[in-house]
Amino acid sequence: MKKTQEPRHPAEQSARARILQTAHDLFYQDGVRATGIDRIIEQAGVTKVTFYRHFPSKNDLIAAYLDYRHERWMTWFIDALGRVPRTAEFPLEPVVSALKEWFNTPEYRGCAFINGVVELDGIGPWVAEVTLRHKRDTTNAIANLLPAGERGMKAAQAAAMAVDGAIIRMQMEKKSAAALTLLELILRALCEACHLSG
């Protein structure tokens, strides 16, 4: 996948940033395939020439969107994990707290990466690669809550899978309490099974 070069001038950077932010909001809200380039151009307030200077194809924009979403979400997630004190009894409690915060935002539409793998299947292996990187970084953030070593990492991997399940459950049912109750039950059992609590 060809990387889009960073703009050199502040005005161009502003246009690129507007395009990317607009694409992010529309792609996440309505889906990538349902969102056309013309709609992004109109809502970003740029010309077609400006758009294609920064993003020669829709796939270039999708790649930039996924990178942007990854950086933005990871920054938020790591911060959210850090806002809840860790306890010996339930070291994964910050994960439940972070997801509760996210699930209760009005713009919640599930995981952009899970959605992307399903929606964008066939446009290139790079979609799965970006998604795996996102999930790996999410797992590493969870692992930072646990003791270092293989046992902690295995527990973090299992917790990350449980998180994905909670995300999908919330997306289907639109009931955060049900998804979070089950997630907490799974994570508590995981901490006990891996001797990570107490």
List the helices and strands and how they pair.
Layout: H1 10-30, H2 37-44, H3 48-54, H4 58-82, H5 93-103, H6 112-119, H7 126-143, H8 150-173, H9 176-193
**CATH top-level class of the largest domain:** Mainly Alpha
Low-confidence stretches: 1-10
How can the largest sheet be summarized?
none
Average pLDDT taken over every residue: 91
Oligomer: single chain
Q: How would the global form be characterised?
A: elongated
User: What is the helix/strand order?
Assistant: HHHHHHHHH
CATH architecture of the largest domain: Orthogonal Bundle
Distance between the termini: 48 Å
Q: Rg from C-alpha positions?
A: 19 Å
Give me the count of strands. 0
Separate helix tally: 9
Task: Provide a brief overview of the structure.
By secondary structure, this protein is mainly α. It has helices at residues 10-30, 37-44, 48-54, 58-82, 93-103, 112-119, 126-143, 150-173, 176-193.
Structure, explained:
The chain has 198 residues and is mainly α. It has two domains: 12-56, Homeodomain-like (Arc Repressor Mutant, subunit A); 59-193, Tetracycline Repressor, domain 2 (Orthogonal Bundle). The chain has nine helices and no strands. The model is unreliable at 1-10 (pLDDT under 50).
Key words describing this protein structure:
single chain, 2 domains, disordered N terminus
